[in-house]
Specification:
12 helices; globular; binds 6-O-phosphono-beta-D-glucopyranose; 16% strand; binds uridine-diphosphate-N-acetylglucosamine; 365 residues; alpha/beta; 5-stranded parallel sheet; 44% helix; binds sodium ion; single chain
Length: 365
């Protein structure tokens, strides 16, 4: 089942060039730039008429929602919010009949997400599922939805489900916006990016030997911070979660826009830092963050675009990833962090497939 791999986590990370294709198969037509999700057909008009969209999920699935929030809002021009399933219920958020609530869950069985679903159904909202498990409770209980078709995910730490959830959510936004002529150029750009994605992921996975070395360097670290902004906000949170889950290193995702509002106090020569810095519209802000970090003797490892020749990287270690469309770049940039968390676990003598205290599916609230 694991083939040439020692653990499911690394096998599933390496599944991604294929699993992302399986998520898009029969749904994205790369010839006429159309996206058709069979599972949404009957409710498309209702979703477009709704007044807002609220995402609800836990853990990595929550991060996939955070990751697509801004492209979803840009394409659909609807108010979007993203809520942890547990806080959704804690806060008893007001939900109305003209709301659409999207529940994202790999297993389709997470108790908190299921409770949030029941809460929204009782209030008359249209409930949409994005699940990996056909026949799961969330798949059955939602009014309609999309199966992400990533294939079974065994590893407790989610990898390929994250990328496939991200793509499924992006496909929903593409389909919802295909009646908006002003979005044609943007939609075309994204669909072309989706076409190249599998190759981009394959190239990114070639960083494996370099990442193994980085893991050797960092294996005794007690803390690690992952910094980025904009489209990479979710990548920071998800990268830090992966590291916590399987390495037990205290890792924190920090949004670069917040650096000077507190986290800058953590920066010193001995603090391990990963800075995610793609060539997108936030690049000059990221340059500023990098200067603030190096001015305080921080020496970040930078996840940078393959083509980026910035002299700011001269004294720094870089992990070079293929550049894609800004809104899809998180799919590429999460991969080095998945591999790093895996190799850190191995270097620290931890079995990444069975991290202490965690379960693959949390079916109690
Ligand atoms: C469906 C078939 C797929 C087939 C394809 C051919 C299933 C499970 N899928 O895929 O095998 O190749 O047609 O056209 O038989 N749903 C929910 N909640 C969720 C996820 C899905 O209610 O969380 C519902 C959908 O609204 C839909 C059904 O489940 O009614 C199947 O969804 P999905 O597998 O995504 O549909 P297709 O991609 O059309
Ligand atoms: C658990 C898993 O905490 O549940 C995580 O260990 C996962 O990997 C989270 O992200 C949510 O699970 P699901 O199945 O609802 O996506
Ligand atoms: Na259903």
């Amino acid at each position: 089942q694991k083939g040439r791999f020692a653990h499911f986590m690394i096998k599933e990370a390496f599944d991604q060039p294929e699993s992302v294709v399986n998520t898009m198969r029969g749904r994205v037509n790369f010839n006429d730039y159309r996206v058709v999700l069979g599972g949404l057909r009957s409710q498309l008009a209702n979703i477009r008429r709704s007044r807002r969209i609220i995402f609800s999920a836990c853990g990595t699935s929550f991060h996939s929602c955070v990751a697509v929030k801004s492209i979803f809002a840009e394409l659909t021009e609807m108010p979007i919010s993203v809520e942890l399933s547990s806080s959704f219920l804690d806060e008893q958020l007001p939900i109305f009949r003209d709301d659409v609530c999207i529940f994202v869950s790999q297993s389709g069985e997470t108790k908190d997400t299921l409770l949030a679903l029941e809460y929204c159904k009782e209030r008359g909202a249209l409930c949409v599922g994005v699940t990996n498990t056909v026949g799961s409770t969330i798949s059955r209980e939602t009014h309609c939805g999309v199966h992400i078709n990533a294939g079974p995910e065994i590893s407790v730490a989610s990898t390929k489900a994250y990328s496939s959830q991200f793509i499924a959510l992006t496909m929903i936004a593409l389909q919802l916006s295909d009646d908006n002529m002003q979005k044609v150029a943007r939609r075309t750009e994204i669909i072309n990016g989706l076409y190249r994605l599998s190759d981009d992921l394959r190239k990114t996975l070639e960083l494996e030997p370099q990442i193994k070395q980085v893991a050797e360097q960092l294996k005794t670290a007690r803390n690690l911070i992952v910094i980025g902004r904009g489209y990479q906000s979710a990548t920071c949170l998800e990268g830090a979660l992966k590291i916590k889950e399987v390495t037990y290193i205290h890792a924190e995702g920090i949004l670069a826009g917040e650096l000077k509002h507190g986290p800058l106090a953590l920066i010193e020569a001995s603090m391990p830092i990963i800075l995610i810095m793609p060539k997108d519209r936030h690049y000059s802000d990221s340059e500023n963050a990098l200067k603030q970090i190096t001015a305080r003797m921080g020496k970040p490892i930078v996840i940078a675009s393959a083509e980026d020749t910035s002299p700011l990287f001269n004294d720094l270690q870089t992990l070079r990833v293929p550049q894609t469309v800004d809104a899809l770049q998180p799919l590429v940039n999460i991969v080095p962090l998945q591999l790093l968390s895996y190799y850190l676990a191995v270097a620290r003598g931890i079995d990444p497939d069975s991290p202490r205290n965690l379960a693959k599916s949390v079916t109690t609230a």
